[in-house]
Write a structure and sequence with these properties.
Belongs to the metallo-dependent hydrolases superfamily. Adenosine and AMP deaminases family. It is a single chain. The protein contains 16 helices and 10 strands. The protein is of the alpha/beta class. It has an 8-stranded parallel sheet with strand order 1-2-3-4-5-6-9-10, sandwiched between helices. Strands 7-8 form a two-stranded antiparallel ribbon. Helix 9 links the parallel strand 5 and strand 6. The chain is globular, with a radius of gyration of 20 Å.
Length: 381
């Protein structure tokens, strides 16, 4: 995409357009100033006490190429999210920040089991977050804005609480919870280990998205679809490893542009043909090494190496997400600008990603239709 006034104006144009966010972690999206304030209140030591310096530190860690450094931030964010009041505040600000970035529908994911260190029960934690989400939406409405937010409850793969978290999600399904997720270390903790939990979800008709194709490869994606009955794939990026380039040639009709013929493996073909939605987080995928297989040997990964455009061109159902706004130092608008500048997308393509995400959301049909009208009207205008 090109504009006459440059990327700053493009950013502002896209910021004002309605967007959809499906993959955004609550504990990865705190305001730096809030983290500093809450840490001081409980005596938790941070690597930096100036909010701007703290944000820079987290971005540097994220860009270091070290997953360990990337994850450092979460020890700090979860430490200050152990009381109902703090969870409520973080959730409220989370919504307000999304709305300021033009998001009108969001699913916020988080793991309640990680927020019980100061005596909260699982239900109390969920209720506190929902209260904050409601307050955030009300605050946005008072300024004549609109945002709808649902909770995705994540069970941590390395622990043994998946069935308990499923029951928690079911208890709150009519009180703000819209679905279930598993997160944490992907390799070594396949969805098949949690088959009973996924069976309960399917039996009770609560949808699931599964982190897969981020920290592990194609077989993890397969298991997410089979054992996890995943309606969506959290990231899903490494499904591209199941796509082979079989030949390439110069296309004379395209001024000598190289044209590639590809072959899809059975997992990639299933995901593409069934239009299983991929919750792609471009910057995070670069930072965490998810796209390592697509980076030329000896070179540093960049967004241009991401298979996002290949997946999109081949007809995969892709959406754009931030994953962890504080940790990665991104916004949804910024991710769209980066993709536009890297792959030459125009407004039509960027609008596609919003509709893809909305149609794959865990909202009801009527709500999706209403928000779809808002999105299409704004982007077409």
């Amino acid at each position: 995409m090109t504009t006459s006034t440059g990327s700053a104006d493009l950013h502002e144009q896209l910021r004002q357009l309605p967007k959809v966010s499906l993959h955004d972690h609550l504990d990865g999206g705190l305001r730096p100033s809030t983290l500093v304030e809450l840490a001081a209140e409980i005596g938790h030591e941070l690597p930096e006490t100036d909010p701007d310096a703290l944000a820079v530190r987290f971005r540097q860690n994220a860009n270091s190429g070290s997953l360990e450094k990337y994850l450092e931030a979460f020890a700090h964010t979860t430490a200050v999210m152990q009381t109902a009041a703090n969870l409520r505040r973080v959730a409220r600000e989370f919504v307000e920040d999304l709305a300021a970035d033009g998001v009108i529908y969001a699913e916020v994911r988080w793991a309640p089991e990680q927020h019980l260190q100061q005596g909260l029960t699982l239900d109390e934690a969920v209720e506190a977050v929902q209260a904050g989400l409601n307050e955030g939406a009300e605050s946005v409405a008072q300024k004549d804005g609109i945002i709808v937010v649902g909770q995705l409850l994540s069970a941590m793969r390395q622990s043994d609480h998946s069935e308990e978290i499923v029951e928690l999600a079911l208890r709150h399904r009519d009180k703000g919870v819209v679905g279930f997720d598993i997160a944490g270390p992907e390799a070594g903790f396949p969805p098949s280990k949690f088959a009973a939990a996924f069976t309960t979800l399917a039996t009770r008709m609560l949808p699931a998205t599964v982190h897969a194709g981020e920290g592990d490869g194609v077989e993890s994606v397969r298991d997410a679809l089979v054992s996890g009955r995943a309606q969506r794939l959290g990231h899903g990026t490494r499904v591209a490893e199941d796509i082979s380039v079989v030949e390439s040639e110069q296309d004379p009709a395209e001024d000598g542009e190289e044209v590639f013929q590809v072959e899809l493996g059975e997992v990639a073909r299933w995901v593409r043909d069934r239009q299983v939605h991929l919750e792609v987080s471009p910057t995070s995928n670069v930072q965490t090494g998810t796209i390592a297989a697509f980076v030329p040997e000896g070179e540093e990964a960049t967004l241009a190496d991401h298979p996002f455009d290949m997946l999109y061109q081949l007809g995969f159902n892709v959406g754009v997400n931030t994953d962890n706004r504080l940790v990665s130092g991104v916004t949804l608008t910024g991710e769209l600008v980066a993709l536009a500048e890297t792959f030459g997308y125009g407004l039509a393509e960027l609008a596609d990603f919003q509709i893809n995400a909305l149609e794959a959301s865990f909202l009801g049909y009527e709500e999706r239709e209403a928000l779809s009208g808002i999105i299409l009207e704004a982007w077409n205008a």
